[in-house]
């Protein structure tokens, strides 16, 4: 129970369905004072109080479990290391993989619980053979299967998402919370990164990685400006470049590449962001992996709130090779996740390692 409306209504629905429910709020900060009023995430001290009040109304036991050390190691340190390496991580996806459906689930099972129930919008479907599949939520507009795509079949066997099959709008979820007497009914949704209370990602990274001045260059290598750390940029970024030289055509420039070794940031036109294909690593499959060496059609999602696109994907050793068959995708960044689907079913997820620009692919062809 994060202290938000979704997890409160999920707990209430699970209890109403006859499950023996215990509310658990995760203490994820080693310094509670860092997550207080004004934070934009879901991990403040006030959030724990909201979760406790909701549990009291529902009539279920409530505990706060301290997973701060695991969260720091598996999510925060991973986040910093990925940016330092020039990649763009997704900490919410990593939290689901390493904390909510690993550390939390393992502790819950050891204590005799059967499942972790959350307020995510996704559905778990049982196959005739007893296996579990992850599917998109009934309401595509609220679907969160992308950030759950890292879950394997064992984890799905112990997952419960009571909001996943609802077609009600978020306003109706809030109305349901109000009818149930839950004070979080009007509480704003959490957003941004929970462990960066003020939303200043660049400042957060600078505090941990320091400053290191480097060059911002164009595709020819000509220096256009300087920066205080290549980690402060992400592929596709337009704002905050502070370039002293406008582009010859007067059009905006975007971040095309980040080199932590040379400490350079390469910028260029929007068209240079088009990606024709990619390779991904650390694949996790919701069920049996596809046969190696066989290219198959899927749809793919590249961002938490992105749209699906048609792809062909092939497993080659430890790599997943993906080609965008419906045309190039723009601004795909290493470190992000690609999630594959067959219809509404999640096939699996992998971490993007390299990309091939459409311009280069066309030239090579």
Number of helices: 8
- Per CATH, the architecture of the largest domain is 3-Layer(aba) Sandwich
What is the number of beta strands? Answer: 17
Alpha-beta classification: alpha+beta
Order of helices and strands: HEHEHHEEEHEHHEEEEEEEEEEEH
Termini separation: 52 Å
Structural domains: how many:
3
Task: Give an overview of the whole structure.
The protein is an alpha+beta fold. It folds into 3 domains: 5-186, 3-Layer(aba) Sandwich (Rossmann fold); 211-268, Adenine nucleotide alpha hydrolases-like domains (SH3 type barrels); 272-364, Beta Barrel (Elongation Factor Tu (Ef-tu), domain 3), CATH 2.40.30.10. Helices cover 25% and strands 27% of the residues. The chain contains 8 helices and 17 strands. A 6-stranded antiparallel barrel has the order 11-14-13-12-16-17. A 4-stranded mixed β-sheet has the order 8-7-10-9, with no helix packed on it. A hairpin with a 4-residue loop joins β9 (254-259) and β10 (264-268). 39% of the residues are buried. Residues 35-40 have low confidence and may be disordered. The record marks 120, 336 as: Interaction with tRNA. Catalyzes the 2-thiolation of uridine at the wobble position (U34) of tRNA, leading to the formation of s(2)U34.
Summarize the structure.
By secondary structure, the protein is an alpha+beta fold. It is built from eight helices and 17 strands. Strand 7 and strand 8 form a beta hairpin.
